[in-house]
């Protein structure tokens, strides 16, 4: 692996657009660090298929310093890797330092630690802490459990892996065939971490109980008309869960009856719903990456209805990556509007913007 660390501020915009830059490959995921001391740090990943007699999948992992107030988007560090399908920061914990996990095309999971520069200057860089090839198939998606001790991984052959995440190693605890086709979505239940949700190109949405031998809690086969792309738990409601699908619908689920969840409502967003990110503090608002239809901010109301409150169409390619910047909770101004990072695939574009709507 090679890396570089240029210190420069990238293109600044005006109005709701804060800044933008072009990445070195096809952009597919962006993630702001959820740890309050590092809320300025944004990670972005790429996946580029090099076709030919011997096709290869290359990628990169970049971190940026984002300051929306100053229209600043500064590239801090980049690492060349295998093609990356998904990245996730470790969740906030009482003593946990920020870790960034990547799921890549080589069947590997790698975990990087966010380190401070040692030359006395400001800034951070990524240092690989551990990595492991866990499957002969590609790793497509991942999620940390709430205590950052386990990682769930979805694979291109439809299987799922549960890894224990130690200080310097990853170990496969369980691995089983969960779906018939590519498994694009996996998510731990933040309120019941023994439950893991999965979604796949086979149009099925499932839940697995990890206690003892993993068992199937439910297997919904009828709600989604096309493949399931993403799953997100509502942070303030233990019974509400969201799914996104190629069929262009965001669905809201009530999982109080875990063996038979209820699809409360759905909303068509005009493009395949590839990514869903709940707002950090306004719990009825989510950000969605809608593939062929840009990005949408959606309000999921208490009366089980949903409405689009704002759209963003400044990308000209597949809308894949999206995330909210979190504030420093100890000094957070609740009236402050949160910055958003979005990225699109073939045009390799990363954009930082601030919603116009007073959410």
Description:
- Belongs to the DPH7 family.
- Keywords: Hydrolase, Methyltransferase, Repeat, Transferase, WD repeat.
- Pathway: Protein modification; peptidyl-diphthamide biosynthesis.
- This is methylated diphthine methylhydrolase.
- It comes from Cucurbita moschata (Winter crookneck squash).
- By secondary structure, the protein is mainly beta.
- It has a domain of 245 residues: YVTN repeat-like/Quinoprotein amine dehydrogenase (Methylamine Dehydrogenase, Chain H).
- The chain is 0% helix and 54% strand.
- The chain contains no helices and 30 strands.
- The strands form seven sheets. Strands 1, 2, 4, 5, 6 and 7 form a six-stranded antiparallel β-sheet that branches.
- It is globular.
- The N terminus is likely disordered.
């Amino acid at each position: 692996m090679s890396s570089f660390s240029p210190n420069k501020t990238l293109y600044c915009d005006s109005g709701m657009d804060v800044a933008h830059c072009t990445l070195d490959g096809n952009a597919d995921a962006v993630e702001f660090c959820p740890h309050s001391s590092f809320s300025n740090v944004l990670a972005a990943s790429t996946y580029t298929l090099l076709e030919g007699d011997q096709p290869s999948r290359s990628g990169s992992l970049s971190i940026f310093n984002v300051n929306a107030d100053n229209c600043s988007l500064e590239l801090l560090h980049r690492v060349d890797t295998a093609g990356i399908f998904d990245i996730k920061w470790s969740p906030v914990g009482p003593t946990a330092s920020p870790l960034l996990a990547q799921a890549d095309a080589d069947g590997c999971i790698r975990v990087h630690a966010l380190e401070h520069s040692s030359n006395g200057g400001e800034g951070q860089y990524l240092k690989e802490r551990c990595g492991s090839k866990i499957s002969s198939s590609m790793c497509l998606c991942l999620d940390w459990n709430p205590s950052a001790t386990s990682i769930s991984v979805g694979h291109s052959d439809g299987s799922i892996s549960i890894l224990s995440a130690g200080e310097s190693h990853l170990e496969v605890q369980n691995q089983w065939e969960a779906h018939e086709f590519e498994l694009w979505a996996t998510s731990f239940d933040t309120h019941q971490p023994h439950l893991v949700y999965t979604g796949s190109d086979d149009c099925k949405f499932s839940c697995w109980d990890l206690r003892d031998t993993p068992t199937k809690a439910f297997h919904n086969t009828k709600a989604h008309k096309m493949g399931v792309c993403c799953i997100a738990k509502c942070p303030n409601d233990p019974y509400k869960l969201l799914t996104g699908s190629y069929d262009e619908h965001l669905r809201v689920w009530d999982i109080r009856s875990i063996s038979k969840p209820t699809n409360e409502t759905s909303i068509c967003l005009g493009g395949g719903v590839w990514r869903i990110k709940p707002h950090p503090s306004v719990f009825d608002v989510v950000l969605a990456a809608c593939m062929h239809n840009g990005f949408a901010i959606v309000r999921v109301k208490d009366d089980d209805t949903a409405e689009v409150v704002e759209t963003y169409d400044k990308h000209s390619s597949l809308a894949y990556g999206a995330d909210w910047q979190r504030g420093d909770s100890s000094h957070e101004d609740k009236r402050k509007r949160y910055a958003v990072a979005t990225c699109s695939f073939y045009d390799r574009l990363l954009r930082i913007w601030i919603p116009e709507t007073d959410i």
